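Summary for the funding panel

The consortium committed to producing paired sequence-structure records for every protein in the target list. Below we show the first two records in order, beginning with the earlier of the two.
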Amino acid sequence: MNISPDDVVFWQWGGFPLNATVAYTWLVMALLTLISWLVTRRLSTGTEISRWQNLLEVLVSGIRDQIRDVSRQDPGRYLPFVGTLFLYIAMANLLNIVPGYMAPTGSLSTTTALAICVFVAVPLFGIAYEGPVTYLKHYVKPTPLMLPFNIVGEFSRTIALAVRLYGNIMSGTVIAAILLSLTPYFFPVVMQLLGLLTGMIQAYIFAILAMVYIASATSVQTGNKDNLPNNKLSNNNTDKAG
């Protein structure tokens, strides 16, 4: 039994193999694109909306609220990146219920690629928010002697992101394979359901950690009212005026 999707090769041309990791990554992206198009092609602003639009609005609102709670900023600038991370990982793990499917997040190459995206996005958001000089000063605080440690910290948390997601998804696959060899009927079904739950939790954790790193890069202090979204500030001012 192949545990890693990297080991399953569907087609090979010269030195370029098409393995399950790449194939199922394309499948997940295609499904997300198709679902997005189907749900958004007939959006309505009226009082009556479709159940799919209602589900989409609940999902987007939930992601926006989580980003706002973590960053204490307007979530609009972060929603596309963080939301895409969550939806991709969630969809990739949810499809495990399909027989023969292997989640691309069970490959270290996929989780590393996702972690690298976060690694690149954190300084980009930080520089866009504070400017390059102010952002780079964080690496020499509280003393320039901390520069190598701060740089190592950037790489270590990227590795931790990749290994955490990979380890949790892979461990579920390994346990299911062991139980399948021992008791081929009942326990694998239970483990599959637990694996789906774990996959959704890991998608949430990965997206939240990405947002935490971005929020730290933009130097947002959660207790500072000046960094709250404009709508919350206006509400507070209205309450005081009343």
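The next record, for a separate protein in the list, is shown here:
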Amino acid sequence: MESIYFFLYTFFVYFKSMLKIGILASTNGTDLPYLFDGGIEGVSFECLISNKKECGAMQKASSRGVLTYFISAKGKSREEFDQEAVNILKEKNVDLVLLVGFMRIISPIFVQAFKNKILNVHPSLLPSFAGGMDSNVHEDVLSKGCKVSGATVHFVSEEVDEGAILLQEVTKIKNNDTADTLKARVQKLEQEMLKSAIIAFRDDKVYFENNIAKIKNDN
């Protein structure tokens, strides 16, 4: 009997401590297989919500057993759309929300519902090239003659691309780079940073100091 109680206790503690993640996506979801298949312990991908019914992100999530939800934006205000998404995420008791290629600007309703628990990945070194999306960002970086680019994982605030920066990584621009080749390298940075951010949240190492987001080190 004691062994049964121990099993039940261990089962309860394990699932209670799991970091539950919800994802919002609109595009191909290139970064998602790296996260889903990355063997990140102590993490549960509870659901993926999209405003695009047939997007690659939906297919990648569904093929891995992650629950998917399509919310049509037709005839809805931003607030109405976001409230539907918030209801789903709250129902799933989500601890952290990831925006991965989500092509909508979220409203204050959403930001307040998950304050300091929403992370976005942006394909540039913010605050440079804020407000751009997808390949347009890489085209702008190259057209300006930048010598480096990179990616940023940042908290989502009520102002677009202005939330506290959590992680950044850099890649050098090559002479023969195109928007596509630069995008491919930046996406690899995005994947590594998203994984690192998830692990930091799981281990309760994310904190703020003077409105600057930081990750505790082990030293």
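Regarding this second record: The helical segments are 2-17, 32-36, 56-63, 78-91, 108-113, 135-143, 179-202. The chain is about 35% helix and 25% strand.
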